[in-house]
Design a protein that fits this description.
Blueprint lengths: L14 H42 L1 H31 L14 E5 L5 E6 L3 E4 L25 E7 L10 E11 L4 H4 L18 E5 L2 E11 L3 E12 L2 E12 L12 H13 L2 E2 L10 H10 L1
Antiparallel strand pairs: 1-2, 2-10, 3-4, 4-5, 5-9, 6-7, 7-8, 8-9
Length: about 300
């Protein structure tokens, strides 16, 4: 059996099912929307909670970060504090003055003579080395070689104020050298001590000064109120005769009130200390090595 549909007719059931489906879909979408909204609120609440936690959570981290910063800032803060100290430290520094030695070394290359003497004493050498005693009316203290040809090397004099209130006027240590003498002639003196009771000259005596053997004699001269005493020492080294003279001049004792005699032994002890430091170094004796001595030797010829 064949069923025939009318061309203008519509299926009566077509709209009813569509309407049902659309309602169902609308009703279903509304529930999904509700679920989505609920889920959205839930997510929003979760985000708020997470955000709140995140605001509180990084605080320890910030403290941890700020701690190195503060520690690194500490050297920066201390560095400027050190700078003024370093800059100011040189200012208060005071130089301690060096204390000069009490003794001075004299050395003469031509004669080979060297010795120590107190810094406060007065040194003269060369042409000015011929000593004088102000107590006696004489020019220079004479050399005591048996032959001419002696040359003054150096003289060291005590300050005139060394013994205030005494009759001390002057004292000195003097070195002379004579290359014209033999070793035998060096043991003799042009004049010797004549203070023997019978007026006979006193022979020179052998003495040892330090490690050096020497011949020694003395001389004394005086006026009414002035006195001069000298001691002469000879030694032969480097093919030459070396003469060392210790002199003391006094005046005023017994003629001026308040003047006491100086301790002569004390004065000569100071001079002998200088003599004990004398050293003779080897020297060349060829022509031209010692111009001053060579000139005198040529004049002698």
């Amino acid at each position: 059996m064949t069923t025939t549909w009318k061309s203008g007719g519509k299926k009566p059931s077509n709209h009813a099912p569509n309407t049902t489906i659309s309602g169902t879909m609308l009703s279903s979408w509304s529930r999904q929307q509700k679920l989505a909204m609920i889920a959205g609120f839930a997510i929003l609440g979760l985000l708020l909670v997470v955000s709140a936690c995140s605001k509180q959570g990084p605080k320890p981290a910030l403290v941890g970060v700020s701690s190195p910063a503060s520690s690194s800032a500490t050297p920066t803060a201390t560095a400027p504090a050190n700078t003024p100290t370093a800059a100011a430290s040189p200012a208060p520094i005071k130089k301690t003055p060096r204390k000069r030695p009490a003794n001075v070394t004299y050395s003469d290359a031509n004669s080979g003579v060297s010795f120590l003497y107190p810094r406060k004493f007065v040194l003269a050498s060369g042409d000015k080395a011929q000593p004088q005693l102000a107590a006696v009316s004489m020019n220079d203290v004479p050399m005591n070689f048996v032959q001419p040809g002696g040359v003054a090397v150096a003289t060291v004099a005590l300050p005139g104020s060394s013994y205030p209130g005494t009759d001390f006027t002057s004292a000195f240590f003097n070195v002379n050298v004579n290359r014209s003498l033999s070793e035998q002639e060096c043991t003799h003196f042009a004049f010797v001590d004549s203070r023997n009771a019978d007026g006979e000259p006193v022979d020179a005596e052998k003495v040892k000064i330090g490690s050096t053997d020497m011949e020694m004699t003395s001389d004394f001269s005086a006026s009414a109120i002035k006195q001069a005493e000298t001691q002469y020492y000879h030694s032969y080294e480097n093919g030459a005769c070396y003469e060392y003279v210790l002199g003391l001049g006094t005046a005023g004792y017994g003629a001026k009130d308040g003047v006491e005699p100086v301790n002569r032994d004390e004065v000569f002890a100071k001079l002998e200390k200088i003599l004990a430091t004398v050293k003779i170094n080897p020297v060349e004796t060829e022509h031209g090595a010692e111009p001053a001595i060579a000139t005198i030797a040529a004049g002698k010829e």
